[in-house]
């Protein structure tokens, strides 16, 4: 077969051994060399291809290592039986989703103001966290590193009245991730009661984990307790500090009722998402429900994605003893999903007082923006604002237009506002209502957007 | 009631309004003030407590905002009906798991050598990534930011023969996290074939997501194809570059067979975990199976947790078109779990050539360590080493001792080695075999550990 042996045309672009290897591998894959066919001996190949013995030896040993040829005692190298390439399916990529429209003013609720972010402190801290902690390169604690968990327990006790030890803290890459983890820890077969209207990601997480989601109406004090009792759900997810999206703050009486609901049957748990608790304008924050829980039935959750920035993927949850035990049994071999350098940066940010300072600056700015936007829109005849005493969004109701018209007229001015129905499930949305976020707009933009909205909705 | 109204003893530790508020809230919670009881008028309270009107007003408005009291027209503030605190359960924390024993030499497989990590480059890059990219504070793309995905697609095409566009790349906080995400995307009701012995976290992930795991034996070429065919599984998870833990490299013929298996029925997928592909000692890496796939049935996965460090929680997967479509439908509203600053740091590390340089340095070091450890242990009479031509661990078989004796005698010298049976499920482990990782030991430690092991196993 020597005469007919397919030889490569060598170029200068790659090592000779590599060209020889690729050429023979390709011939075997395409069938040009049949299974069982012998390669020329190494010496013969040197002569045929005009290359050195070491080139041939390297190419042949690669072919053997990768299974293209088999080394047979006394007969040299024999081509292996490869299957022809698997049939090609029409595997073209699905069309990319269309680019989102560009808005002059985006009043959605997920943006933050990055102008107050302490870039230079964060950059310094990040650099120090890397330089001063070579040990952080190794694998850390599955719940997050102890020093960060201690700083979080301290922070939450001081500012939110949360009662916990660092052992109960679980750090993870974002609130949605932790919710997903939590749904794997909670007692199986339990339906989860969700606020309606409510946080869409909580509905999505329940669906992904195969849990029945039961929408429960929200009244002026938060999740309806009677509806919760009747629902048969074993778990309830609530946002007591600033209900998303209605902006209701749950008063002490309702908190106490929900704790009673949780303690009234074995295996019930209340998930307290302390959404927007950092930002209250008209009174100071109400302590967390978790701090009132004496039965070990509350899971407290929080995140830095709004109080620092969405880019910082760090959230935390406080597990009651029963769930902590389950976490240790289930997830103790995994790694925490937050980079240890970022954990250490955040810890420094907290304990050096930079977080407190940042929250005060950001809070002052958001309070001003909220007052500015709400004040300008309150001038629209017939408009009713609600939920504006806390958080980074509020609701506007304007009975003379339907929700669709409100959204469409805003869009004509290139202003993105979300309809309240976007967050509604079983409960019909309060009519003629839109959700207005302001955190991502500058004060100048807020003024101009408010002017355009006054015109659009006049 | 004025005379009997419980008044606080003021201290200097907190604002007066706060002390007044806490005192009254506590009296309502404890029942000392009954539901329906009236608070003294504001003016009367000023006189009773000897504080200013603004102090009383602030305290009363907090009590009202939090639902402890109700403001009734013309009758002032009336105590609300709170339920007594929920009953206390014996909610003590479960005992913390015992501290892991401290080993003089840890030969487990998850450590890396941090001495070659380019701390100063990484610190510089991290700082630059923060300073130069204020826009990164906002929410990013759910699959990870496009520039990093483009750099990964380029890297994988160049070094691993992976064929993909940046649109197919999904970045996430660690390989275990991505595997968990993937199990939510893959067709439901399909059992997943896993290598036996194999990666424990893959078994754990299947269990968590309620998928049946089918252990498939590994022979000298990787996952047994006939057993896979017979298993009825619709998904298969393999580590072709350096099978964990056996260290087998899957030759081209077996790769082709697995591709045929995947293409032979609708909805079958092959998950290629390209574990340890960065570190080969005796020949260069074999291109990824993904690059040979023409039917869109391979999901390629990789991580930087070994090639850079476990602390860097960045892994990636390449989705074939059908799964990409499913990802967009299911997860497009979530956020990527990796901090955008860390994504940008990693991108700079890749495109500035620092990653390539780091891999070469780390590779040279690990190659030396592998040769040193394997060479020293090969001198033990009767010992057979395998899987030492790639990766950061190898196997040692010593037929005259049982696995338990090998592990126990090493432990007597304070050396941690894992038994092979730790990774076995249905298949009985090859007897008298231990798994030896060396990446976390210095060269000096390797020499001393080998000497102790020679003594322990003589």
Write structural notes for this entry.
2 copies of one chain form a homodimer. The first copy, chain A, is an alpha/beta fold. In chain A, 38% of the residues lie in helices and 14% in strands. Chain A is built from 14 helices and 16 strands. The first copy, chain A, has helices at 16-30, 42-49, 53-65, 119-131, 146-160, 175-185, 200-208, 225-231, 252-263, 321-331, 340-351, 354-378, 403-412, 443-456, and strands spanning 69-72, 76-79, 105-106, 169-172, 192-196, 213-219, 222-223, 235-238, 269-273, 298-303, 315-318, 384-386, 393-397, 415-416, 418-419, 433-437. Chain A has an 8-stranded mixed beta sheet with strand order 4-11-10-9-8-5-6-7. In chain A, a hairpin with a 6-residue loop joins strand 12 (384-386) and strand 13 (393-397). In chain A, helix 5 (146-160) runs parallel beside helix 11 and helix 6 (175-185) packs across helix 7. The first copy, chain A, is elongated, with a radius of gyration of 31 Å.
Can you tell me the residue ranges of chain A where pLDDT is under 50 for at least 5 consecutive residues? none
In percent, how much strand structure appears in the residues of chain A?
A: 5-15%
Please describe the biggest sheet of chain A, giving its number of strands, its sense, and whether it closes into a barrel.
Answer: 8 strands, mixed
Calculate Rg of chain A over CA atoms.
31 Å
Q: How would you sum up the global shape of chain A?
A: elongated
Number of helices of chain A: 14
Indicate the topology:
2 copies of one chain form a homodimer.
Chain A: H1 16-30, H2 42-49, H3 53-65, E1 69-72, E2 76-79, E3 105-106, H4 119-131, H5 146-160, E4 169-172, H6 175-185, E5 192-196, H7 200-208, E6 213-219, E7 222-223, H8 225-231, E8 235-238, H9 252-263, E9 269-273, E10 298-303, E11 315-318, H10 321-331, H11 340-351, H12 354-378, E12 384-386, E13 393-397, H13 403-412, E14 415-416, E15 418-419, E16 433-437, H14 443-456
Helix pairs in contact in A: 1-3, 2-3, 4-11, 5-11, 6-7, 12-14
